[in-house]
Design a protein that fits this description.
- The chain has helices at about 5-20, 25-30, 35-45, 80-85, 100, 130-135, 145-155, and strands spanning about 50, 60, 65-75, 90-95, 115-125, 170-175, 180-190, 195-200, 210-215.
- By secondary structure, the chain is of the alpha+beta class.
- The strands form two sheets. It has a seven-stranded mixed β-sheet with strand order 3-5-9-6-7-8-4. A two-stranded antiparallel ribbon has the order 1-2.
């Protein structure tokens, strides 16, 4: 027996059909939703979830990670060569071990890439990479072409999706032999350049609160 009152059932039915324009098929899908999906819907209604771009799930605020904003990285229509982009030049400093750890020399050109939405999550307390990744979606690894697109969009350190105050923007990227590295992108105000650094997971300790963790918006926390 349901714990819901008959009036509540009618209210929900009316809202789905007349206000939400739900079809019978939509209601069937709602009835088949997983517990995690239902928690996301409930959280949105209670104000603890945020919904970003369509076709992407909501991100739940946790004690460790707080969703801040999302952005759509435009589709790439021109070839991207990581070997040409990730090298020291005016406006960009690449850490000495980046080429080796991220296996830049072995990477092929990317002929094109679809539009992808990324989410920026504020780190609410000090945490190691292991703990951060445990709170991210299963498929949370970023691509080098997406990171490059975000850097290109903020040439000269202008304001945008990436923090430009010297604090870390943290991405997780698969590197040499399938090992995952933390890629730290930060703006150097003194040198007027973006700095791209690689770190082995948990190697140098934990990340400070206030840093941002960025990942594709393709799953729920």
């Amino acid at each position: 027996m349901s714990n819901y009152k008959e009036g509540q059932i009618h209210l929900l039915s009316d809202a789905l059909e007349n206000k939400g324009e739900f079809t019978p098929d939509d209601v069937t899908l709602l009835g088949q939703a997983t517990p995690e999906q239902l928690r996301c819907i409930r959280g949105y209604l209670r104000g603890t979830h945020k919904i970003f771009e369509k076709d992407y799930c909501s991100f739940t605020e946790t004690a460790l990670l707080r969703p801040v904003e999302s952005t759509a990285i435009p589709a790439r229509t021109k070839s991207f060569d990581p070997k040409r982009f990730y090298k020291n030049r005016k406006g960009l400093y690449v850490w000495s071990t980046f080429e080796e750890c991220l296996d830049i020399r072995s990477r092929e050109k990317v002929a094109s890439a679809p539009e992808r939405t990324y989410v920026s999550l504020e780190l609410m307390q000090r945490a190691y990479d292991t703990a951060i990744r445990a709170g991210l979606p299963k498929h949370h690894l970023s691509t080098l072409e997406d990171i490059a697109a975000l850097v290109e969009a903020q040439r000269g350190g202008k304001k945008g999706f990436l923090l430009n105050d010297g604090w870390a923007n943290i991405f997780y990227v698969e590197g040499k032999n399938g090992e995952v590295f933390a890629v730290d992108v930060c703006w150097g105000a003194g040198t007027r350049e973006w700095c791209v650094l690689d770190w082995g997971l948990d190697v140098l300790g934990d990340w400070n609160a206030g840093r941002r963790v960025l990942c594709p918006s393709n799953a729920v926390l």
